[in-house]
């Protein structure tokens, strides 16, 4: 049996592929290489360069490789871009997912794991949010993912098809073994930007807003190490394969750090101050987004191993320092 990983040449997908191979799985990756990198796919995995919306290609890939499970990462992830060009996000994240789910049903793949997001909640208030909280996405990005969750729910009700949608909080860090990391060009995430600044790839960085209703006035987020996130996917895969029912689960640690605390961590780990300049709030940023992750812990048996902000930052810094050489390959 083979696991099909869409977006396996990207940031989270490539960590997933390494993890599956280590667990002895056979893996086939489908990636259009629009933002991912060929070098990020381990040589032991088969790489098919193509579009998940090419249904003939997907069905052929599924059937020729005896795929029994799909882990679906491929998609667009930049929230402000989704506001500027919503139809591109509904196409890339929603329509293409529909075609992929259709291919899965037609080729009788019963197990499907979907990369969803905390953005489905919108501004959920200052307390940790659980899966029962009514989704109210504030961006086309969040809605494009929520619509896919709903397609999965309805497909599971109609067919012999089971899914797990994992709602990611703020994913950061890099493979502790240094094999892959966040390499996306123009990535805008806080830990990435702070690491680039520490390493002199940028002269300064900006802190968006300092007047939020949080302890130090900057936004609070639940930063989760990418390797712990990937571990949750593998538990979800085992659970689905052994007949577990469809579910939606948050993936975060349940603890938030402010922008200032993250910058302080980067300074601590790097050993030098960063030029971080306060500026106006970024439109659409919620004050605090923290997961209640009891469900993943109880139902998937998920036990995070890398729940330590400095460790996340350390792995991200190490990767960032190595990255300029990698991207030339
Ligand atoms: N942020 C910041 N400066 C940056 C990038 C991000 O102050 O250069 C803030 C951003 O406003 C948010 C938090 O850091 O409050 C996390 O942002 P990120 O883009 O990493 O993730 P998001 O929570 O928006 O998905």
TrEMBL record:
SUPFAM superfamilies: NAD(P)-binding Rossmann-fold domains (SSF51735). Keywords: Carbohydrate metabolism, Isomerase, NAD. Its cofactor is NAD(+). Signal peptide: none annotated. Homodimer. Belongs to the NAD(P)-dependent epimerase/dehydratase family. This is UDP-glucose 4-epimerase.
């Amino acid at each position: 049996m083979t696991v099909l990983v869409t977006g396996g040449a990207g940031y989270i997908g490539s960590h997933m592929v390494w993890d599956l191979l280590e667990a002895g799985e056979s893996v086939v990756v489908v990636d259009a290489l629009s933002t991912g990198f060929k070098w990020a796919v381990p040589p032991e995995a088969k790489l098919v360069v193509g579009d998940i919306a090419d249904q003939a290609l997907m069905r052929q890939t599924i059937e020729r490789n005896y795929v029994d499970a799909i882990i679906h990462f491929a998609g667009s992830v930049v929230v402000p871009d989704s506001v500027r060009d919503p139809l591109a996000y509904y196409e890339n994240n929603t329509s293409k997912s529909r075609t992929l789910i259709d291919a899965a049903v037609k080729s009788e793949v019963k197990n499907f794991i979907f990369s969803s997001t905390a953005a489905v909640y919108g501004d959920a208030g200052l307390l940790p949010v659980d899966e029962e909280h009514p989704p109210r996405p504030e961006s086309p990005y969040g809605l494009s993912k929520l619509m896919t969750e709903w397609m999965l729910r309805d497909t599971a009700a109609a067919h012999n098809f089971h899914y797990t949608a994992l709602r990611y909080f703020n994913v950061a860090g890099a493979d502790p073994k240094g094999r892959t990391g966040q390499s996306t060009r123009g990535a805008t995430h806080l830990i990435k930007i702070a690491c680039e600044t520490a390493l002199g790839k940028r002269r300064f960085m900006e802190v968006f807003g300092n007047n939020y209703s949080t302890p130090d006035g900057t936004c609070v987020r639940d930063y989760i190490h990418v390797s712990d996130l990937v571990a949750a996917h593998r538990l979800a895969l085992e659970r689905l394969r052994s007949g577990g029912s469809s579910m939606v689960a948050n993936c975060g640690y349940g603890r938030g750090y402010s922008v200032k605390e993250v910058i302080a961590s980067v300074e601590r780990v790097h050993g030098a101050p960063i030029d971080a300049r306060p500026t106006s709030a970024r439109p659409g940023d919620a004050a605090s987004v923290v997961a209640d992750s009891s469900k993943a812990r109880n139902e998937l048996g998920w036990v995070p191993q890398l729940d330590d902000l400095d460790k996340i930052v350390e792995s991200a810094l190490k990767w960032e320092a190595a990255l300029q050489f990698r991207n030339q390959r």
